[in-house]
């Protein structure tokens, strides 16, 4: 029978904060469109919250609110579970319980996916259900689905992402207003772009989780947050940002995932650190708290995906997109494309990763200094792209940009330089990423 | 039985030009990755060409080449057909034959999808097979899948696309070098960015086909190329481009799709024309022959997708992405998300579409001119955002930017102005799109 009113699919939402309340709102206000796109109505089965009486942006039907998330996800009639609690536990146990009970799951939980995706994906495989998490990286920007599906016939070689809005806001303010890190962070906190405890953002933990997820999908290899080399932006100074400007570049906190040639064949490199990128690079113009992910692949070339990386409605949009896909799959009784880790490439340690460095030195202004600085680089097999010297009385400033070399060699060079008698101070050290097209020469 | 060597899926490729030869190359060089991602090997069943002996970028195994495309798509063992011939016929008949014979189809054919998608989608529905065409719009940039799937839980309100690389190259050259249209076009032809007969690109036919496809997906409504108002760039002058610059804007050929309030409720507006957009708009920085599609939606906000819009390898990347999806669906014996036109909104005629205008007039420099010009706008119910007057001896130049008004009222205003005694010439008329953020004030 071709029923005009197919059986509704029941949706349980875990968590009703900034994102959860928008998910509930969209489920209600878009219900007709959603039904047309899924092929069956989506019906809210329940919303699990910790504090039923907390103020929210959405009216929750009283009968649907529960504090017993576990019982909700285990209900026989629940087809789809949206997890927007965040953190490792109880989110992980609840997702596992949901899959075990036969529900498909949509999650926005980057920390959990990056730390223990393997357990969750295995559970989804065992249950034959979907586990989607587009909202975990770059909020509303569709990036995981394009990596998983649109680029499935191509070979991704590099992903460079501005995946943390807070740090991009801070660095953008430092760039546009010349302010220091502390001042810019304070402004971000005042405007609601940074948490009272900004550690997860500022020290790069959030961006590292996203790098792990991006690298896993791009290279069909399991990469966890622990595999990602991580440096935050708290040591970036106003002078670093000014130096970048002088060189036609801007400082961004980047999530960098690369397919590289390792000692034993292809390998993956995944890292998060502040870096100078030339103003001509499309990522350089990503301002304020916006996110963008730049993808390089063999056939497609250079792609960029840009949009709001956080916030209730944008994140809820990504969650709902996944929910429609998962629901459609329930209607056709199939699973969507799942994670593959068949490539199983080794993750290269940071020391072996190839990067370029921008180094600024205060040195004595006398004959032979330039030669001995150049010698220090040569000793460590690092070749130089440019050296610029500016005398200022009895001292001089040297700005050196290296060619690509291993991070270990570059670090060793910096150590050697720091110990040299006529080097007064290594005043700035920063990696250089993106095509340079002469901008940093 | 869990077979380690599942049955290969057989792929027929129709056409072996710039795109087809890259598709064949990727199928061969990426075969292991493709097999892992699909869950079964993809095997080239045959390549249909018109001239078997033409020189190509790829070595075709002699036994696989045929001039009988019809027989190839009707072969029982062909599971997937890639159509990269282009044009309406024989592409349409071949796609219909392929679907009828039970194959899934991947096409890069924007003209055909925009003109007669309805027939093709109905055939795909009847056959229960996939018909994917990501490569038809903006080459390698994943934009159709994000519209169809990632944003399925959101409400798209506007799509602004730079979807034609040739015209973007020409306009970019006019902007950066101050050259005229003819000169810039000649350069584009010399560099291979424009065809010897550039009509399809320059007069906006190509961009209109893409606008129809984007509007159909964004608004779940059937929009054909004939529904799209179309103006090309051949009348854009160096002086228009210079005027735009003066106002902090740049001229782009845009594919514009909007969800608007029509006389009888929601409606769709779809149009292609040159327009000024402020330099602060993300589309303004799309240079050379690059494409980008800017999407506004209620929850996700402002997203942009950027990348190469044409060329063999990028287009082949998009084709292969679709091919992997269609192949995976064959393995699981399901269909992917298909087109929906449930919203079935009316398409608003251009006259009713709301836009803004930038108008430049040479007028007599005497008292009362400004008042009577302002009066002409008021007569047609068009309110003004700014008027700037510059005296130059006995004549003056007036630059007027209107607020949003219907295109019919704006056109009527321009006619009235042209007929006024003290108006020596209406020297430039161009629509203004994108958020202005003061750039055009």
What is the overall shape of chain A?
A: elongated
Quaternary structure annotation: homodimer
CATH superfamily of the largest domain in chain A: Dihydrodipicolinate Reductase, domain 2
Indicate how many domains the architecture of chain A comprises. 3
Low-confidence stretches of chain A: 436-441
Number of helices of chain A: 14
Structural class designation of chain A: alpha/beta
CATH fold assignment of the largest domain in chain A: Dihydrodipicolinate Reductase, domain 2
Fraction of residues in β-strands of chain A: 25-35%
In whole angstroms, the N-to-C terminal distance of chain A is 70 Å
Mean pLDDT of chain A: 93
User: In the CATH hierarchy, what is the class of the largest domain in chain A?
Assistant: Alpha Beta
CATH-scheme architecture of the largest domain in chain A = 2-Layer Sandwich
Q: Could you tell me the radius of gyration of chain A in angstroms? A: 24 Å
Helical coverage of chain A, percent range: 25-40%
Main sheet characteristics of chain A: 11 strands, mixed
Query: How many E strands of chain A?
Result: 17
Of all chain pairs, the largest interface belongs to: A-B, 56 and 56 residues
Can you offer a commentary on this structure?
2 copies of one chain form a homodimer. By secondary structure, chain A is of the alpha/beta class. The first copy, chain A, folds into 3 domains: 9-139 and 313-331, Rossmann fold (3-Layer(aba) Sandwich); 144-309, Dihydrodipicolinate Reductase, domain 2; 351-432, Alpha-Beta Plaits (2-Layer Sandwich), CATH 3.30.70. Chain A has 14 helices and 17 strands. In chain A, strands 7, 8, 9, 10, 11, 12, 13, 14, 15, 16 and 17 form an 11-stranded mixed sheet that branches. A 6-stranded parallel sheet of chain A has the order 3-2-1-4-5-6, with helices on both faces. In chain A, helix 4 links the parallel strand 4 (80-83) and strand 5. In chain A, helix 5 runs parallel beside helix 10, helix 7 (165-177) packs across helix 8 (181-190) and helix 13 (369-379) runs antiparallel to helix 14 (407-419). The longest helix of chain A has 20 residues, at 312-331. The radius of gyration of chain A is 24 Å and the shape is elongated. Residues 436-441 of chain A have low confidence and may be disordered.
